[in-house]
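To whoever is covering the structure queue this week,

Two jobs came back overnight. Logging them here so there's a record in the thread.

Job A:
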Amino acid sequence: MRRLISHLGPVIMLMAGLGFAIGAATSLELGSFRRMGPGAFPLLVGAVLSLLALTALIENLRRPMHVDKADPWAVLGVIGGVSAFAFLTPLAGVLPATALAVFATGSVIPEFRWPYRIALALGVSMAVWLIFVLGLGIPFVAIRGL
């Protein structure tokens, strides 16, 4: 049973990656390398996630990883971070939602002190702005009202 549980994480990641990749390839315009369409990025992220999950699954089949006891606070932190992002993005914009999501998710790591949590939240938000808004020109509402 423990061996089956150790395979669960990579299998879930593989299914999510394949779901994103297949969904993007079948329902969104991919565009070209010079002019990427809205489906190009989800396809790329889904393919990379699938490749990483497949690598982890193969490695886990060779040498099963140790399964720790589940941490309910960590689960709540991740659920809270994802929920905060989904709820706040339309209300406040992608940057405040990203900062709060990263902060909420990082808050369940006891070794991760407050200054580092704040720095990580601000850093990831800045990276999202630089990569997606400035670099790729994706028309996100960075901060609602500005």
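Job B:
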Amino acid sequence: MMDMILQTTNLCKSFKGQLAVNNVSLHIRRNAVYGLLGPNGAGKSTILKIIAGMIQPTSGSIEFNGHTWKRSDLADIGALIERPPLYDHLTAYENLKVRTLALGLPKQRIQEVLDIVQLKNTGKKRAGHFSLGMKQRLGIALALLSQPKLLILDEPTNGLDPIGIQDLRKLIKSFPERGITVILSSHILSEVEQIADHIGIIASGYLGYENEIQPGTDLESTFMEVVGTYREVN
């Protein structure tokens, strides 16, 4: 039996009576990369925000690290959802220092995470002058400060150039070796295929497919079949 760090059971979320997430049951294996695939508006970000404690589910349950999810578990969950929460007038080091002071974390973590995301040589350059790829990596550094067991990344390669995507892909693939499980969302099939060990495909709020990525899997056909099926449901 696989060692699961997180499972959701019949997770639902509605907004003004409209179901955005419909009975979703995810199975996230420990020390792996899980790709949550789906078209824009499928419900991916809503699911990630629920797991990250940003919004509450309408119904359903979450099990984290062998017990029912509770607010204190957020100490073990890092997240980068939407734009990185950066102070543009501060350096990378200063941005991280603000977070360590707020969370009461040891100062030594700043250099450790700067090294992990390869931003230790940015010196006095302010975050507002960083490239988009650098900003994404600094956002990930902020999420890593508390040494999380689970890292949530929502569309992390959006807007990046090919070099930025390659750098971020390499970084994400290194996390399981550090004891960090990753859930990332994307609508780019080829990108997830190169990073993830397992995938779930969300369409119209439903989880239509979940499995390990096998060599030779025709992910595009599977994706289109799931999206087409659940588009007809609605």
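Note for Job B: The longest strand covers residues 4-15.

Please reply-all if you pick these up so we don't duplicate work.
Q.
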